[in-house]
């Protein structure tokens, strides 16, 4: 694959608590290092505050997910291995992620990124990233670059150059969890 931008440059930005605006496997997102309290706080402030909303964590692959989620249920592992659309899973426990990323129901939302540019960037960077919609918390999620508010564009440190012209109306991922009977429950379809 031909990289639209330099991975080392983007990695350096992430390592210095910068916020990036880029397309993901779902919608355009504000991207930050998920292990950096400073970067997470900056993303929360950009979106309008609110400390207990949680944020989606993006990982490069199943191995990176397993490093974060102790005791990954075999049903989820099979689902994630076979699933070909963006799917965010809620997990009751993680390792090495700030508590601040935990959602209001005590779960961490993690997605194996399927984007052909962002997933390899995450793998190259070697750490999970926060991928939160490029909108304020109280507003609709922009479905393409042209719908992103100017204050969001101005509030990040870097805006990706690729896929700005797309208008294909991407949507947020489905969100699932295992219920108390270990059955798949859809939180958002």
Describe this structure as you would to a colleague.
The protein has a single domain (7-188), classed as DHBP synthase. It has a nine-stranded mixed β-sheet with strand order 7-1-2-6-3-5-4-8-9. The chain has helices at 7-15, 37-46, 62-68, 74-82, 118-125, 150-155, and strands spanning 20-23, 28-33, 56-59, 87-91, 108-112, 129-133, 158-159, 174-178, 184-188. By secondary structure, it is an alpha/beta fold. The mean pLDDT is 89.
Point out poorly predicted stretches: none
Overall 3D shape: globular
**CATH homologous superfamily caption:** DHBP synthase
Order of helices and strands: HEEHEHHEEHEHEEE
Taken as a percent bin, the fraction of beta residues is: 15-25%
Structural class: alpha/beta
CATH architecture: Alpha-Beta Complex
Mean pLDDT: 89
**Could you tell me the radius of gyration in angstroms?**
16 Å
Number of helices: 6
Q: List the strand order in the largest sheet.
A: 7-1-2-6-3-5-4-8-9
CATH class: Alpha Beta
Q: Compute the separation of the termini in Å.
A: 31 Å
Q: What is the helix content?
A: 25-40%
Structurally, the number of domains stands at: 1
The count of β-strands is 9
Major pleated sheet? 9 strands, mixed
CATH topology: DHBP synthase
């Amino acid at each position: 694959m031909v990289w639209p931008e330099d991975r080392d440059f983007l990695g350096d930005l992430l390592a210095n608590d910068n916020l990036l605006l880029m397309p993901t496997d779902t919608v355009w997102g504000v991207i930050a290092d998920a292990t950096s309290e400073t970067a997470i706080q900056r993303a929360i402030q950009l979106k309008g505050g609110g400390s207990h909303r949680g944020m989606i964590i993006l990982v490069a692959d199943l191995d990176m997910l397993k490093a974060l989620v102790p005791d990954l249920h075999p049903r989820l592992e099979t689902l994630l291995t076979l699933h070909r659309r963006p799917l965010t899973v809620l997990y009751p426990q993680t390792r090495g992620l700030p508590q601040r990323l935990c959602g209001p129901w005590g779960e961490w939302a993690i997605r194996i990124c399927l984007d052909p540019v962002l997933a390899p960037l995450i793998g190259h960077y070697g750490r999970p990233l926060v991928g939160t919609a490029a909108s304020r918390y109280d507003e609709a999620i922009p479905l393409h670059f042209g719908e992103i508010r100017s204050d969001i564009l101005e509030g990040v440190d870097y805006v990706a150059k690729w896929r700005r012209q797309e208008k294909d109306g991407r949507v947020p991922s489905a969100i699932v969890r295992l219920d108390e009977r270990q059955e798949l429950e859809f939180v958002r379809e």
